[in-house]
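As agreed, record passed on underneath.
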Amino acid sequence: MKKIISTLNLPHEEWLAYRKTGIGGSDAGAVAGLNPFSSPMNVYQDKISSSTPDMDNESMRQGRDLEDYVAKRFMEASGLKVRRSNAMYRHDKYPFMLADIDRMVVGENAGLECKTASAYSADKWKDGQIPPHYLIQCHHYMAVMGADHWYLAVVLLGKEFKYTRIERDEELISNLIAIESAFWFDHVIPQIMPEPDGSKACDEVLEQYFHLARKDSSVLLIGFDEKLERREEIIRLKEKLEQEQRQIEQEVKLYMKDSETAFNDRYRVMWSNVDTARLDTQRIKSERPELYRDFTKVTSSRRFTVRAA
């Protein structure tokens, strides 16, 4: 590993700029197609963009603020000591691999990744399970730092604390390096967008890249007949499955009649009353057109449709 910059008192804008020079641990799961909240397209867009937008949110803010708490809980539970590294590192042999780690473990060739998670996601951590993108993140750090193992600690907010020791898996690391190398040299360096993977994250990237269509423009559709036929099959299958789902729900509702709850040892079904307040926009448009105009916000997007020729 090679230390490339001290992160102590490093302005956030500069830290974001350094992240663009390689693949970090939080990118690794997305590049490998294992992050349910991101995709290779998202990482690609971030790396080639000249801007450094701070995609911060409340969840990320809480994660940063609670990092020290998670580290303290880990020390209490494990009996180990940890320290901040306050640096960003680069792999000696694969310089596109970066590491900005939470903590190093004193007296061991290992580090600690601190996580916070909603109590609603507790099932993803039960029985010693680790979300795949976090497992990949820890192996990415082991690869960059040359570590023997890594610790992962998580606070399930309002519920429990747990930690686990992840042993170094050479085969996994070798495969991860190959995946990240292909992503960096086949996509980021030549600026060739990765193939879509069907995720919502890909939809967001495509909408951002190609937000507006050139009016009256067209392109000859070549090589997509089989895929579009498959799309039609999927739509028909989806409609059939949705009808079957509704039928099952209707049968349960008929069984419940006016009861709010039905339960047994395996399931708890709720058919409860919900009051919803909606603004009557048609009435406002008709009776108060000036108010409707003042508070109407026009947004532009692209609608995807397929019709038979």
